[in-house]
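The pair is quoted verbatim underneath.

:::
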Amino acid sequence: LAQVSLLMVPFPYVVPIPAVLTAAQQAPAFAPRPARIETIRVRQGEQVHAGQVLFELSAPELDQKLQGAQDRQDLLSERLGRRMADQRDLSESLVLERELRLERDRIEGLDRERSRLVVRAPIDGTVVDIAPELSEGRWISDKLRLALVAKPGTLEARGYVDAEDFRRIADGDEGRFVDDLYQQPASDIRVIRIAAAAAEQLDHWVLASTHGGLVSARQQNGKTLPEHGVFEVTASVAGPASASGQPPLTALRGEMHIRGDAQSLGGRVLRRIAHVVVREAGA
């Protein structure tokens, strides 16, 4: 009886959350449309400033549309130029002027779209990641993240808490982040944001079991989907990890240890059994 009672006594409980350590301020760079890489002007680890050219792309289909619009503009301008000598053109001048305005607007829009093929750094910072498959002459889609630029200074830990532990943590809870390989001292952290709804897919794919992480996941239609309910958690970082003011050059995988509400060992075992039963029943 004493052993059973002991199992029901609440003890302090640390909630383990698979997480990555990243720069708090970061911005991705994408191609505006399917295009071909003409020039790569940046390397991973390089410091860049906002507006600096990272990649130069080309899109022959866009060039063809622009050339066609310019040819039509020239033809319309020519017809308007001789309208005084041509009675038919004179009677159609209003129509020609409207078509010319439309063509000029089309050219302006195509020029803006072509200018976006020069991909620039979205913020000041460090290029912390470049897609490994990039090479000059290669065709890419507009869904491929070309690069990720992170601003040095503030770090965050971002991860996924299991549905079983979701209600055991709250904004303001404190804990520590420890990286998998112990490359740096453990960092003090404070929870600043917990998602209200379960994640439909894992944006931090390095945490997925399909990539060697601890979050059970599967690949489907190019997306990384969690096998069971998990909620994204973000924590601010203080202490040794951010003392240098530099973010990791790549996302540093590890685990957040958040001091959650006390619970009994017996209660946790029973909840885990119930979780497995419900999951199997729904399979």
Q: What stands out?
A: Residues 240-245, 274-283 have pLDDT under 50 and may be disordered. Residues 101 and 251 are 50 Å apart (CA to CA).
